[in-house]
Design brief:
With about 280 residues, the protein is an alpha/beta fold. The chain has eleven helices and ten strands. Helix 7 links the parallel strand 4 and strand 5.
Length: about 280
């Protein structure tokens, strides 16, 4: 495990909390300018390394962690719970998370990679972004077009199962698009189907990342509001049995209960109302 990884700095219960920081005057007055200037600098830096064939597992982890650190230096408070779950899983897994902003796509590798080699299911636009595409393509992501749902599903199942069989874990965002509202009706079962196909566990992840806002004109460049907390909560692994209905409901309940606790908007249904036990565990 990398000596400066979040896991190495976490508490014994697998919780990481940002250390106290004193943001610079520029960061305090112009957090978005401060963050995006360093974000773009690092994307260009690591993107050129990737284009030159010098971007491997370590650089994937380092580039992600660097952005997390920049956000902390801008004044954001980041809390991650449940890191110990990865010590309990001997093989690869499917990581299923709600999708609130660009933030989770960027920094999940910095959290997970020290435990599990990891890649993503991504929309094609992600691997067409200037410069950033070089970084993402080195990770052999599973690319979907979002034109033909059945073709996308077969690609995820076939390519995903092959990657999982080689020991690489996969992050799936079943909502397909970034939104601050969690609506279980728009949380599809693609992660459940992939885990069932490959016979691997699912790790549910609840994220609150609206500190990195969704842009009005360019979705990736919204307002950075460091007064909003950043939260990642990794849950216990879930094995898929039968058609996966129970596993899907368990993932939705886990994510919904944490988002409720964090004050996020969740579209309530009878199966997503947080139980007392779920809320207490947050």
């Amino acid at each position: 495990m990398a000596p400066n990884s979040l896991a190495s700095l976490a508490q014994s219960d697998g919780t990481y909390v940002s250390p106290p920081t004193s943001p610079s005057m520029i960061a305090r007055l112009f957090p978005s300018v401060y963050f995006y200037s360093l974000f773009v600098y690092n994307v260009v830096k690591y993107g050129m390394m990737a284009k030159a064939g010098k971007y491997g597992d370590l650089e994937w982890y380092e580039s992600s962690l660097t952005i997390l650190r920049v956000l902390e230096k801008a004044g954001a408070n980041i809390q991650i719970t449940g890191l110990n779950v990865f010590k309990e899983i001997t093989g690869p897994c499917v990581i299923v998370a709600n999708h609130m902003s660009t933030l989770e796509t960027i920094i999940l590798p910095g959290i997970v990679q020290p435990f599990k080699d990891v890649t993503f299911v991504v929309k094609r636009a992600i691997v067409e972004y200037p410069v950033f595409k070089h970084m993402m393509l080195t990770r052999d992501p599973i690319v979907v077009d979002r034109v033909n749902p059945r073709e996308d599903l077969m690609r995820v199942l076939n390519e995903g199962a092959a990657q999982l069989s080689r020991g690489r874990s996969i992050v799936v965002f079943p909502q397909t698009t970034r939104t601050v509202t969690f609506d279980p009706a728009h949380f599809n079962t693609i992660g459940i189907k992939l885990a069932r196909e490959a016979a691997v566990p699912i790790v549910p992840v609840a994220v609150r990342t609206d500190a990195w806002g969704i842009g009005k004109f360019i979705k990736e460049f919204g307002k950075v509001n460091v007064s909003l907390p950043v939260r990642f909560a990794f849950g216990q692994p879930v094995m898929v049995e039968g058609r996966g209905t129970a596993a899907h409901k368990a993932v939705i309940r886990y994510i919904s209960s944490h988002l409720h606790t964090w004050g996020c908007h969740v579209v309530s249904t009878p199966s997503t109302e947080p139980t007392a036990a779920a809320t207490a565990s947050s």
